[in-house]
């Protein structure tokens, strides 16, 4: 994001989304990650995040997309940019990761090699987000390109459509992450609406926004502690409402944090590689005989956040790795300006 349009509160929310995502995957779903059982405070925390974690990531994507809407006839440029940013890392990071999971010892998830090789089509890991967001970008981008989202009313109608489809039963086969795209679309559109109304939201809800989010968080923690089955269904009216309200509340709060802003600058690398570092931390500590849940979660969270940051710094130094593994645009070397010899020195 350019310095002109860079928003410290959005970068802070990026960092918060990274923190929630990594913490969830460190703790893991029931039977995964650290295999923490029901009744543990960490299990309650992991379950309570379900309505906020990925909606917040997607809300931010919609907000930032709204700053760079397609204009004119440059859809081909938009398409190629999203292929580079999302699909190239899907093949160069997502598929190899799934294969490593299939053949590696001591993993929690039983994945066949064939399923791993086909994971670009039917997702089996967190990389489903790449496929889902790509579909959303293409769908919303086409509408924008054809001039169908030029008024607020049409944007609200798109949200209503997304919400209606969100509540429909999922497809039996999640081809190219289509179920994920349907799940995330309302939050993406909510992010677009949030960007259009950001000034009004901050003026109206700057004080009440944080209170609303804290209240929602406490309620989710309580429900997850009492009966986790009441909270794990993401595609529900409650999930849609809580996700959208939470994102709007966080945006309107104008929250800023230097630490979270710094993390937010590496959000894509953290998303791509955090599981690798968190799993490595879990494996090493397990071999050392460490069983304390607090130590395991803290070390996994630290490695899952900082490991990808270091990897990003290394990959970004070289065009080859930055394009393949981070989806970044290849840097172009500037040609040195031609030096003109002074007339007095020419012979």
From TrEMBL:
It is a multi-pass membrane protein. Residues 9-315 form the Acyltransferase domain. Its main location: membrane. The chain crosses the membrane at residues 12-32, 44-65, 86-104, 124-143, 155-171, 177-195, 207-225, 237-253, 260-280, 295-315. Signal peptide: none annotated. GO terms for molecular function: acyltransferase activity. It holds the Pfam family Acyl_transf_3. It is found in: Cell membrane. Belongs to the acyltransferase 3 family. This is Acyltransferase. The lineage of its organism: Bacteria, Pseudomonadati, Pseudomonadota, Gammaproteobacteria, Pseudomonadales.
